[in-house]
Design brief:
The complex is a heterodimer of chains A (217) and B (140). Chain A is built from seven helices and eleven strands. Chain A has 217 residues and is of the alpha/beta class. In chain A, β1, α1 and β2 form a beta-alpha-beta unit. Chain A is elongated and about 65 Å long. Helix content of chain B is 41%, strand content 19%. The longest helix of chain B is centred in the C-terminal third of the chain and has 18 residues. Chain B starts with 5 loop residues before the first strand and ends with a helix. Classes of the chains: A alpha/beta (217), B alpha/beta (140). Chains A and B meet through α4 of A and α3 and α4 of B.
């Protein structure tokens, strides 16, 4: 896959490295000359110094052959324009933009950006949804994140306490793979009752994860 | 223009301050936004509208300026991309009926015109006037 990353800083750096490791063809457009030079030494990617929102620079990056364009700068307006020009002018089918102001997210997607993500929103959701679980540990993404494995500990506020697994409204695509109780692990059956302090190993598809957690809080 | 309109001007540089002052003098209700408070000094004494200090890239600031009530929005900051984003926000989120966008870069100007923005490239207009004036001078 040919990927164009537009941005600076650590996010662009580490994402660029990750895509290179995954054998993608990576082009990075960075607007800071010193950092662009550093990137070019440290990442096995084509690095272009310039304004990634400008058609001539996108042309140089061969945007018309790109499968994916990611815009990750700290300026929403730059991320929007880079993605729009890539999409509308160069026909890139998938564009992903970072939105710094979370209230821009819906608008970006409304006008055609494939995915607009807000780090602020993601963190806020994480904190809100999972604050109840003091111990969420060992999150493991299997096979590129298609399945997640998570460990949680049930506290006394959980509405699932005392219920049998078969009576919980667990979403399809979600499974309690293992219960660890008083140091002993067992694979539960539908009739297994949940207790305070149980450590549960959850296996789920990412899209069902939040619903899964809601059932267990 | 007889009817009084609610007009939002985004960017209080040389161009924005002239537009805001003139429109205000014509009797329109004008709100002007800039992140640098000191530039509001450019506004003429005839300006009787509101000035809001803030980054137009923040949705909050556009809400504060009551963009949803505006009949006209004019994006004239020094940054093309910011003008482009604010204009599209004005159109799609705040449903402003008339939106004018200043774009300095000629290529972007062309692209966004095709995408349906009403763009004005002050660079292109200046160049045209320079060339015309030169032509006139040569003919004299």
């Amino acid at each position: 896959m040919k990927v164009i990353l537009i941005g600076d800083g650590k996010l662009t750096y580490f994402l660029g490295k990750k895509f290179v490791e995954e054998k993608h063809q990576v082009t990075i457009i960075n607007a800071h000359s010193a950092e662009a030079e550093t990137f070019s030494h440290q990442i096995k990617a084509t690095v272009i110094f310039g304004d990634g929102t400008h058609p001539t620079i996108l042309e140089e990056a061969e945007a018309s052959r790109a499968d994916l364009v990611l815009a990750l700068t700290p300026h929403d307006e730059d991320n929007l324009v880079a993605c729009q020009i890539a999409q509308q002018y160069y026909g890139v089918s998938r564009t992903i933009a970072l939105v710094n102001d979370p209230s821009h997210q819906q608008f970006f997607e409304q006008i055609g950006i494939t995915i607009a993500f807000s780090a602020t929103q993601i963190l806020a959701n994480l904190i809100e949804k999972r604050a109840d679980f003091e111990d969420i540990a060992n999150f493991l993404a299997v096979d590129g994140g298609q399945i997640g494995v998570t460990e949680i500990i049930l506290d006394e506020n959980s509405s699932a306490i005392g219920k049998a697994l078969q009576n919980l409204a667990l979403p399809a695509g979600a499974l309690i793979g293992c219960i660890i109780r008083e140091g002993r692990a067992f694979v539960p059956s539908g009739g297994s009752l949940l207790q305070v302090g149980d450590r549960l190993i959850l296996i789920s598809q990412p899209e069902h994860y939040e619903q899964f957690l809601e059932v267990l809080t | 223009m007889k009817k009084s309109l609610y007009i939002a001007v985004i960017g209080c540089g040389r161009l924005g301050s002239i537009l805001a002052s003139d429109l205000s003098q014509q009797g329109h209700e004008v709100v002007i936004i800039d992140q640098d408070k000191s530039v509001f000094a450019h506004l003429g004494s005839e300006f009787s509208g509101f000035a809001i200090t803030g980054d137009a890239a923040e949705m909050n600031i556009l809400q504060l300026a009551k963009l949803n009530k505006a009949q006209v929005a004019i994006a004239v900051t020094g940054k093309d991309n910011l003008n482009i984003m604010v204009s599209q926000l004005a159109k799609t989120v705040f449903n402003v009926p008339i939106v004018l966008t200043r774009i300095l870069d000629l290529l972007k100007d062309e692209i966004y015109q095709q995408l349906g923005l009403i763009t004005i490239s002050t660079t292109k207009i200046s160049a045209e006037i320079f060339l015309q004036t030169l032509q006139q001078q040569l003919e004299e």
